[in-house]
Amino acid sequence: MRRPGARASGAEVALLVSLTAWGVFPVVLLVIHAVHAHARLTGADGLIGADGVLGADQLQYLAWARDAGSHLLASNLFSFTPSGHVYFEPLFAITGALWRIGVPLQVAYLLWKPIAAVAMFVAALAWARRTLGDELRARAAVVALSLFLCTPLAALFSWAQLGSGPLRFQLYLLGDELLPANKLWGYVPSALGLALAVLALLATERAIDPGLGASPDAAGRRLSVQRGPLALAFLAAGGASLLHPWQGPTLVVIFAGVALWRRGRNVLALSVPAVGAALPLGYYYVLSHTDAAWKLASHNEMIARLPPLALLAGFGPLALVMVAGVKRPRGVVIEQMLLLWILASFVTYFANDAFAPHALQGLSLPFAVLAVRAWRRLRLPAILGALGIALLTIPGLAYDVRKFVNVAQSPAVQYYLTSSDGRALDWVSAKAPPGGVLAPTPFAIVVPSQTGRKVWVGHGYWSQDYSSRARIVDRLFGGRMRPAAARSFVVQTGASVLVSDCRHRASLVGGLRPMLRSVHRFGCASVYVIRAQPAGRSRRR
Hints:
This protein has 541 residues and is mainly alpha-helical. It is built from 23 helices and six strands. A four-stranded mixed sheet has the order 3-4-6-5. Strands 1-2 form a two-stranded antiparallel sheet.
């Protein structure tokens, strides 16, 4: 086997530029609109979020990062329920440290975007080189599909508004999970986790098969395990699992499958990266059973598995294309890993009850290799290959562009803060008395990252009884609650500060006057400071 070239081709460099531009596109769009509207960016730039709230996940990341910047370990700021500083995530910890030394929190998080883009590209390129060798055209095709694959029916159903609303959303979600490039839109931990998963696989192969399949299998048995690559595989697998926990069980299944396929050879070496991937999973398991916030999140309603029809519509066309690319591994470790990656992803998908579709992230890489091999095996014309790649990428990307353009042009509070709302939150951050914040939804989801304060309700997964609490809070800030009931409710929450954004202009002074310590107006936004309540009065957490 020839050693693949070390330099990227012109087409591959163009793909890196395209990936980086794709990742930066939402930020450019948001900045343009923010300048035009004289608004402040919150730092969110994702299309899908918790409980249907756009940008919710990035605002949770920013809240964790801000808390980590003050305490190293983060706690849950979306509930008044006591929560310890127990969560360590390196990306958020570094982001928080940058914020601590003066870098704006939003900028500190966005700095990861180009890093993630380069990491994903390098991972996809290394994967393509290892599986396709140095045939430049085929290699570039694998990189393109690895980074930009979107199941064609997902794009078709979205563009043409076919099928029922739930089916369209399910297909859109599946397409989004399969599209690695979209992880650059706010989900850089997932992007970096995927890149590290690829590194873990390639380093493991290098460790147990230094000849990379060049020697016959019998001679390969005599090759010693390489400790450097094995240590790298351990760290990469652990990092992938910590940044994106669904990669952890997938990697464990792959390494276990390779050990079985090789009839126990190198089982000790394969256990090293498997343990690396398993350790963060143990950490998350302990958190979900010992910390109140993580218990709450693990029991809140999560995104369920997709129904069989959505899976069939999403994967059926891809499977038909790629089945012709399957070949016998013949003892080559990377070929075993390629097939096992598909199997392991579905094992993780069906074994996991929490956000099961996240287990499908990364499938584009083995699928890309099989699709390109199928094209080569069938000896199809190059023009058909180019059209196939275009069909599998451009419609889905174009739909997401249109969707984000529409979102960016709206005054979504998850992305933008008006001058009044921003000044109100600045005052809460710097001058408000200690205690939690009561705010209307969806504005409440912005409060923790902007102020470092806890909110009574704000996030679909990290706030207790989110739906019912959101309805009650919105009644209060909408002026639809009787004065006595409003005062009783505020006391029960235990909030010390109420923040009303510019979308909720009903005055709360009349109903809350007996318990108000002060009121601060910031244009159309208001901050109400509550008098300290006697011990025992606050009950609802």
